Fold:
Amino acid sequence: MAGSAFDRTPDQNAIVEGWTPPEIDVSRAHSARMYDYYLGGKTNFPADRAGAEQALEAFPHLKVGAQANRAFLLRLVRRLAGMGVDQFLDIGTGIPIEGRNTHDAAQAIIPASRVVYVDNDPIVLAHARALLTSNPAGATAYIDADVRDPESILGHPKLTSTLDLDRPLAMLLIAVLPFVPDKPAETLAQLTDRLPSGSYLGLSHLTADNDPAGVGRLVDTYRQTGINTQALTRAEVADLVPDGWEIVEPGVQILSQWLPDADAPAPDPVHVPAYGLLARKL
Structure:
């Protein structure tokens, strides 16, 4: 498997026919493209695949964890839409997966749902514009911004023209804050400060609680690849939630145990090294 992946030509990295990468440095691994590799995607380059293979050596269950993370996102969005939430701000979007994105889940329940995707990888945004097609009743927009600069998101005209910030919305940070290891709580507080009462916050975060040695090796491997990351305990993940917000049921849970689908096979929690939660602004 690894050999065939590394033998791909550049054209085989294009989900959109005729698409070529923007002028970016693909000689360095990027977390979004490594995640795409774990999910079996094609939008990754030799440096990404090399970094991903090293990470898989350190923690062989990483693909299981990535699938659980995507499944958590979809369950989370379906639950929110089922509660009437029709506005979503998805920060750290990652590379799209056909039919398995935030707007797909939301608009299947509320066709008029409006979604703004945010990422700072030009490759992610190129694919987002090409592939994330909204239901005609709703809307999608895409912002090139960095989670570490909240104002670049909150002050962006595409955000304010797509979402009504006077009404409750859901902000999603799925597997994003592990890559903001310096000030994750402060960053999250700035991002959520202007959201109106009744808004929701959904996030997932890497943890070493169930496998300290394996996840420790994983974190070290990412850092050696040039990607700074960290794992948090259950209590530390809960502490990320800003003042004025309450964590709602079922609380902070390993992703595969957060309101799992009854008919879906449940992976071993040790193989899913991340917690997920949903919180509501009071």
